[in-house]
Specification:
The structure is a single chain. This protein starts with a strand and ends in a 7-residue tail after the last strand. With about 450 residues, it is an alpha/beta fold. The protein has twelve helices and 15 strands. The strands form three sheets. Strands 2-3-1-4-5-6 form a six-stranded mixed β-sheet, sandwiched between helices. Strands 8-9-7-10-11-12 form a six-stranded mixed β-sheet, sandwiched between helices. It has three domains: about 5-165, Rossmann fold (3-Layer(aba) Sandwich); about 185-365, Rossmann fold (3-Layer(aba) Sandwich); about 370-445, GMP Synthetase, Chain A, domain 3.
């Protein structure tokens, strides 16, 4: 395991900007308004050859523990309790505030070593703000600019004593022999208040993600590494990805919500299997089908999970209704797994993870050219391609050129005249006969070029 560094500070001092700079990607949402970050977010940081896990936390606010800012503060406190060193960030332009002093008192009482970072310290005008930071009693502040990358060498020198291994060995990275043993990248998506964060917390057995009655709490897509124990007692790694609730596009007016939804869709691209979580008490809505369609369009394997099933009445009729609506609404992929779960009680969650691993196996499999073409010949014999205007369409052979998602190339002549219905017949045959089930399958048509065409 890499050592961990937590970034703490009041809202809008530049914590997420520093996080993004250290991980080398724009993972955390950044905006001028305060309080953008709510959950703690982890990433692998690299600083001049030093590797560590960096944790971005919510802005520390002195509010009631039961309020949303109060619950955010508890997430920040949990991050600091479990880190190797804390980076306390203040704003050198604004100077030291009473809230900065309160955070400093809390950090001094804890066990974690603290490095003081005076951010936004560009130019001589901020020197007074940097000097003022000495009053916090946390040693010499590091003048820094997360926006422009100034002060990285000083930050490296300050972190080195806490993160360097005594034996001089580098921290080991995990390597996996094959895709099956690698962590399952599992994203949870859905409308606001479907219970996505609650479900992940139940799997982890801790309040890792911020939850509550308010809709739209989650903004950043948060990835958490977890080890699942199968029924047989085998431990398998999973990377759980929580995403922001996705409302109808017409309802999304707030800039931050647009950023959060965009971040969630980006998380879908990096996932292998996506769970569309529905609130079973509200049934299936048009927005759920839009989300499902987007997941399949990106070529991800899809599972539908009906949450809050423990509170549902007339479950059998509801289940059949949702199943039929999905069958009608997702014509491109029939038979998507539908699971009934309860994030509140944990019922059905083990089965959900088991099905997710099985779905990834189908999504990742490669069919040999021999098996594929034996199936292809039988499919052509059972249902030959049509002959528009009396001219035969010749289908010569098929090959699988990609996995994840499974992608096939069909070679022949006059393929531009092949009806969509026949293409669907072949895709459905691949799914049914070759063991791909309900994962999205892509079929590309490629005609041989005629050297005498011109």
């Amino acid at each position: 395991m890499l050592p961990t560094v937590a970034i703490v500070g009041r809202p809008n001092v530049g914590k997420s900007t520093l996080f993004n700079r250290l991980v080398g990607k724009k993972l955390a949402l950044v905006d001028d308004q305060p309080g953008v970050t709510r959950d703690r977010r982890e990433g692998e940081a690299h600083l001049l050859g030093l590797d560590f896990t960096i944790i971005d936390t919510a802005g520390y606010e002195d509010e009631d523990p039961h309020s949303l800012p109060g619950r955010m503060r508890m997430q920040t406190q949990a991050a600091v309790e479990n880190c190797d060193v804390a980076l306390f960030m203040v704003d050198a332009r604004a100077g030291i505030t009473p809230l900065d002093e309160e955070i400093a008192r809390w950090l001094r009482e804890g066990d974690a070593p603290v490095i003081l970072v005076a951010n936004k310290a560009e130019g001589k005008a901020t020197e007074a703000g940097v000097m003022e930071a000495f009053i916090l009693g946390l040693g010499e502040p590091i003048p820094f600019s997360a926006e422009h990358g100034q002060g990285l060498a000083d930050l490296f020198q300050a972190l080195l004593p806490y993160l360097e291994r005594e034996d001089g060995e580098e921290h080991e990275k995990e390597f996996y022999e094959d895709e099956e043993s690698a962590p399952l990248k599992l994203a949870i998506v859905g409308r606001p208040n479907a219970g996505k964060s609650t479900l992940i917390n139940r799997l982890l057995g801790e309040n890792r993600l911020l939850t509550g009655p308010e809709a739209g709490i989650t903004r950043d897509s948060i990835a958490v590494d977890w080890m699942w124990t199968s029924y047989e007692g085998e431990e398998r790694p999973v990377r759980l990805i929580d995403t922001a609730g996705m409302r109808k596009r017409a309802k999304v007016q707030d800039k931050l919500e647009k950023l959060a939804v965009s971040d969630g869709l980006n998380a879908v691209n990096f996932a292998e299997v996506v769970v569309l979580l529905l609130d079973a008490t509200r049934g299936l809505e048009a927005q759920d089908l839009r989300i499902a369609d987007k997941v399949l369009e990106e070529g991800r394997a899809l599972i539908v999970a009906l949450n809050k099933w423990d509170t549902v009445e007339h479950g059998s009729a509801l289940y059949q209704g949702i199943k039929q609506a999905l069958f009608d609404g997702l014509a491109q992929v029939r038979g998507v797994p539908i699971m009934t779960v309860s994030a509140a009680t944990g019922k059905g969650l083990d089965d959900l993870i088991k099905v997710a691993f099985e779905t990834r196996t189908a999504w990742s499999q490669r069919i040999s050219t021999g098996v594929l073409n034996r199936w292809f010949e039988a499919a052509l014999e059972a249902n030959p391609p049509p002959a528009p205007a009396g001219k035969r369409i010749k289908l010569r052979y098929i090959t699988q050129n990609k996995t994840r998602p499974p992608t096939f190339v069909l070679f022949g002549t006059r393929l531009d005249e092949l009806p969509e219905s026949y293409r669907r017949y072949l895709v459905n045959g691949i799914r049914k006969e070759l063991g791909f089930g309900a994962v999205p399958v892509r079929l590309t048509l490629r005609s041989a070029k005629n050297p005498y065409a011109k």
